[in-house]
Design goal:
Blueprint (H helix, E strand, L loop, with lengths): L1 E3 L2 E7 L9 E7 L4 E3 L2 E7 L5 E7 L4 E5 L2 E6 L9 E6 L4 E5 L2 E4 L11 E6 L5 E5 L2 E4 L10 E6 L16 E3 L7 E6 L6 E4 L2 H11 L89 E4 L12 E7 L13 E6 L17 E4 L7 E4 L14 E9 L7 E4 L24 E4 L7 E4 L14 H8 L5 E5 L3 E3 L6 E2 L11 E5 L3 E5 L4 E7 L4 E4 L10 E5 L5 E7 L9 E3 L1 E5 L8 E6 L14 E3 L2 E4 L2 E5 L14 E3 L2 E4 L6 E3 L1
Length: 655
């Protein structure tokens, strides 16, 4: 369905009282639709409880809403908490909402509640892609309840339904107040998580609801309209004044696929666009105006992970700004960093100074690379250190604007060359830790280094948290160890030297026992280079027994691919028991995918050798996702094993 090129206006209920309810919608769609290039204005009602909506999106599937003009919606007598919505999004699988201009400015005579929204997401289910829009709402809130919002959600969005790519939007809701919000949640009279300023909103939407960079280039200012009154045909309705500098001009981002504006004018940077500039305007109009750059560069990057390695990491940051990012030596983007124990100030950039240090990028365009110089710190980086960091950049505006990711300056700096006045830095400060690896020789047992492999404080949990830096041997010192199966061994983090091995073996004779129904007692969840060797002599004796005592669908050992495979793993010289099973499929060893008994890609170089495997029906299951190397099970070796069945049915070995 396509709804485009329509002018919808003068739908009014203008009786002396208007009644006590009713709904006026300019456009309502209940089927998948593209709604483009429409103008909706002059909708009003004197009802005491009316709902007025410019464009209502209530369809499943993918909906495209772009280049629409919505304004002059009025409900002066209404007491509803959401009496007016410029755009209402109540459904959809994916909603692409790009380059719309909405202006709501309703007065109210209500003595109680009155609430309005420029755009309102009443459902948290759809994925809402929101870019390059202008959402203005200067309506008066109710005197006792209700709030004015530029953007409203009923409940907090997630990183899925409000993606990290949402950006370059213009929001304004009048003078900041608890009932005049850039952003708010709730359909009730009082907002939850109300954000009064664009700065607070950016922090909330990108940090509190973690999606770094989300809305980083979005802006707010008092809009300067040519006209807020529609006409037929449309001439100046909701155009911005091109003689006044505004952040709307060239404030949009590319990549939306919208190549023309409401009137069919080419979007910049397309051929023939107004002014021939490199970025499109926000909103439904593409004009040749004066760009006002009042915000710092948008900075996004993938946070540095915790590491076993004391070598310094390199961070790659995507940094953009309408006026350009300053890349002159001395004012180029910088990475500031310090140990968490150092002073939260700037005192100088040498190892003798206690505080933040910096490095400057040598890149001349985005993405910018920045590498920590550990020599500037007061002491070498060692295991246990926590390194805090943030990135700053300034733009090319006449009066530079400074962007940061992430943290809050005490005093706004004039540029990237920070002084002590900018500190202490508060808010959310990114950091990574140098974790301490598991020792190269550990024991498993009641008096051992760890009491179990899979328990809450077991070896697997420790490796998942700390990783390995040397070939490691875990020796089972007790004759019997109880396993819960609570922790799988995930893909292992390694130190600077690269991959190492983990060997699990008995000191004398040992049994690992536990009950895990419809699951595995021992699970290697994408873990590589693990050797489970049941010999206590380095020979072929089978001195380690591993038993899953569950009666329903037990698996003893599961090598699970997370995509790249669980590779270079060996299970040998063990007694593998799933003898208590009475129902459902039972596996001694499963080499598979995300579920037991499913195809798993690239579980390569697996050896299953000289084991005694007793199972109700399946001794070994091994299944790749393809019959070729990519996805297949390269170099699978199953040899010298003895298989036994405890059921009347035939034991099956699936390979």
């Amino acid at each position: 369905m396509t709804i485009s090129g329509n002018i919808i206006y003068a739908i009014n209920s203008s009786g002396t009282s208007g009644g006590a309810g009713g709904t006026i919608n300019g456009i309502t769609v209940l089927g998948t639709a593209t709604i483009s290039g429409n103008a909706v204005y002059n909708l009003s009602s004197n009802s005491t409880n009316v709902t007025i909506v410019g464009i209502s999106v209530g369809a499943t599937g993918t909906n495209n809403v772009n280049n629409n003009l919505v304004g002059d919606l009025r409900a002066p007598n209404s007491t509803g908490n959401i009496s007016i919505s410029g755009i209402l999004v109540s459904s959809g699988t994916t909603n692409n909402i790009f380059h719309n201009t909405v202006n709501i400015a309703s007065t109210t005579s209500s003595a109680s509640t009155f609430g309005t929204s420029a755009i309102y997401f009443s459902s948290s289910a759809p994925v809402n892609n929101l870019r390059n829009n202008v959402f203005v709402n200067t309506s008066a809130p109710g005197p006792t309840g209700g709030f004015t919002a530029a953007i409203r959600y009923t409940v907090a969005p997630t990183t899925t339904n409000f993606p990290a790519t949402n950006n370059n939007n213009f929001y304004y809701a009048g003078s900041p107040a608890t009932n005049r919000l850039i952003y708010g949640e709730s359909s009730a009279a009082t907002a939850t998580n109300g954000q009064q300023t664009i700065a607070n909103y950016k922090t909330y939407i990108s940090v509190t609801l973690p999606a770094p960079g989300r809305e980083g280039a979005s802006v707010s200012e008092v809009p300067n309209w040519v006209s807020t009154n529609g006409s037929n045909p449309i001439t100046d309705f909701l155009k911005y004044n091109t003689s006044t500098a505004t952040q709307i001009e060239q404030g949009g981002g590319t990549g939306t696929g919208i190549t023309a504006d409401y009137a069919g004018t080419a979007r910049c940077p397309g051929t023939g666009c107004p002014g021939g500039v490199s970025a499109p305007d926000m909103g439904a109009w593409e004009l040749s105006g004066i760009a006002a750059d009042l915000t710092g560069p948008s900075i996004s990057y993938t946070a540095l992970p915790n590491s076993l390695c004391t070598n310094v990491p390199t961070l790659t940051a995507t940094i953009t700004d309408p006026s350009g990012v300053n890349v002159t030596t001395g004012t180029s983007p910088r990475l500031y960093y310090k140990k968490s124990t150092d002073a939260n100030t700037y005192a100088g950039n040498t190892s003798a100074d206690n505080g933040w240090k910096f490095v400057e990028t040598t890149s001349t365009s985005s993405p910018f690379t920045l590498t920590i110089n550990a020599g500037l710190l007061q002491s070498p980086i060692v295991a246990g250190d926590n390194i805090q960091y943030f990135v700053v950049a300034q733009d090319n505006a006449t009066t530079p604007n400074v962007g940061i990711n992430s943290g809050t300056f005490t005093t706004a700096p004039a540029g990237v060359s920070l002084t002590s006045a900018a500190f202490p830095l508060t808010g959310t400060i990114n950091s990574y830790s140098i974790v301490t690896p598991v020792a190269s020789s550990v024991t498993i047992g009641a008096s051992g280094t760890y009491t179990s492999l899979t328990g809450a404080s077991g070896l697997f949990a420790a490796i998942n948290a700390g990783g390995l830096s040397d070939n490691t041997v875990a020796t089972i010192i007790d004759a019997s160890v109880t396993e819960t199966g609570a922790n799988a061994l995930n893909q292992i983090a390694y130190g600077c030297s690269g991959p190492v091995t983990l060997t699990i073996k008995p000191q004398t004779t040992a049994t690992l026992t536990g009950s895990v129904a419809s699951g595995a007692l021992i699970k290697l969840n994408g873990a590589d280079n693990v050797i489970i060797d049941g010999s206590n002599s380095g020979g072929t004796d089978r001195s380690l027994t591993i038993t899953n005592t569950a009666t329903t669908a037990p698996t003893v050992i599961w090598l699970s691919s997370t995509g790249a495979g669980a590779t270079n793993n060996t299970v040998k010289n063990c007694v593998i028991n799933a003898t208590a099973a009475t129902t459902a499929t039972t596996y001694g060893i499963s080499v598979s995918g995300a579920t037991i008994g499913s195809a798993g890609a690239d579980n390569d170089n697996i050896t299953i050798q000289n084991n005694l495997i007793t199972s109700r029906n399946i001794g070994v299951y091994a299944n790749g996702s393809a019959a070729v190397s990519a996805g297949g099970l390269d170099n699978l070796n199953i040899s010298g094993n003895t298989f036994n069945s405890v059921a009347a049915s035939t034991l099956t070995t699936l390979i």
